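Feature request disguised as a bug report, sorry. It would help if multi-protein outputs had a clear separator. Right now it looks like this:
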Amino acid sequence: MNRIGINLLWLVPGVVGGSETYTTRLLQGLAERSNELDYTLFALPQFGAAYPELARTFKTVYAPLRGRSKGARVIAGENSWLVLQAARNHIDLMHHAGGTMPLIRVSRPVLTIHDLQYLFYPEYFTRAKLAFLQTVMHRSAENARLILTPSEFTRRTVIERLEIDPTLVRVVPHGIAPSPAPDPGSADIRQRYGIEGPFFLYPAATYPHKNHLVLVNGFARLLALHPDASLVLTGAKGWREWSTAKSMESRLAEEIRTLEIQDRVKRLGYVSYGDLDALYREATAVVFPSRFEGFGAPILEAWTRGCPVIAADATALPEVVGDCGRLVSPDNSDDWAQAMSELLEDEAERERYVKAGAARAREFSWLRSADILEAAYAHALETTL
């Protein structure tokens, strides 16, 4: 049986965002199926605490690192410790699931590239991070035996912008489990957070590309027609990775004050999984105005909980949403106000999107995604590149 290693040294739980969600759901899909390959996870110690079931299901080898320093993870982790562990565990193929690969080649390398946002919005990155990505991403893509992407949009971008042979790039879409049973402990979600009337939900950290400013301006216009509506924002303050994100956090707070809509905008910050589940179920719709997404996992989360979606007509989002949600220009606040207003006023239209979204979400089961992933591994093992 071929041995597959999965490099998770980049995965600092609660920090890396959508790539963490994507990868752990793929692992959950692998865990629930009969596997023809032997898997070993190479992870930081905190991975086991964050995902105990995955750590128990798969053989998991923990690096002697805490993950606080990216330099330590790359130099001491991927380019030394991981190389040694791959040899000790007789790994045939190493999947680098975080977007880049170490300088030292470890077994047959497969690479996941989640997105190439730095090529489109370099101003959102620090000089140091931009220089790192410009150097490492292209080299990693050229050295990979196979590249995996979450969407056809990202696949095309990798092929065109990194000049990669199309036969070496495959889509492994996001997967999600069927809707879980509602958490009884979150039945009082409105009361605990002081939410009254109909509300729209945007679950996203305040990174610049998430486009909160256009959304709050559209919402301010909506209030002229529906003064009882609320906007609920969840997600951590986005300043861990990009200094520009800290500036965006300040700009968003100032914009809300300037528009004088503080009493109708609920900024909840990070909320538990159970609370987010309850918010999805209660919301009139999820609004997702992001300018750049490699996929857009919250769309699937909303659909599996009976919540319709209004999303930006940009990057991978139209591919995911199709005609199962409302697509709006990411930069026109009037259009966002109109789309929100129509879902508040037209219950039949809202219900149509609820049913269409639920059907669309069933196409993205994590078992199907795991099947596609394992087929990609088998293909990479068979090639002679």
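(second protein starts here, but nothing in the output says so)
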Amino acid sequence: MEDKSVAVDVGLRDAVLSGWYQAQTGELFQGLAISAADTVLDVGCGDGGSAHFCASRGASMIVTDVDATKVEATKRLLASIPAREIRAMVSDSNPLPLEDGAASVVISTEVLEHVDDPAQFLSELVRVGRSGARYLLTVPDPVCEALQKHLAHPSYFAKPNHVRVIQREEFAELVRAAGLVIERRASYGFYWSLWWLMFWTTRVDFIGARHPVLDNWARTWSALLDTPQGATVKRVLDSFMPKSQVILARKP
């Protein structure tokens, strides 16, 4: 494992163990299989990781983000996958520049905590999903966010970053109130909860963040996962202090 990618490599391994990016079953997250028949909308596409997985399964892709540089980066990433339909647009999702019922799968990961009106945002996601559409939604977990408040730079909890902390039952109620049926709830990411706490103390740049504390934490977590009880310890800690909470839902 190269030093330059130790944190990312371990983070990806941890994500797969949490149920993300299941190549053998085609599940973006455990319980959400993607096929070539799907039209996937990724709202707040970020670095394009989820979009790349879905496009690799043959799905038609619609990607949006308020950040034009992220939209362009995701377009470049998906361009390496031939014969895929790709629609990319810059949008703040208020409203989404899409027709009703455009997507069979709607993804929005780590976005709801950024928006001014979560209910309005979710109503747009529901509008553009067709009947029976499946939804993958994630937000930061309040336990991790409470810890970040002690060490994070003030900008972390200010626009355009996290303008609210969404409690667990509040998250579920927002999803139900939007008219979706919750099919599964999960949490994951203890590894990243600790990584972020250490990141703030090192005061290094986020892009390409490198520091012995961060690198050694990644190696420690990887070594722990290699132990006979590593998977069990991960499940316990992911439940105790997850980075994010997940809801899988369906539009009736």
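Even a blank line would do. Unrelated, but nice: Residues 1 and 9 are 8 Å apart (CA to CA).
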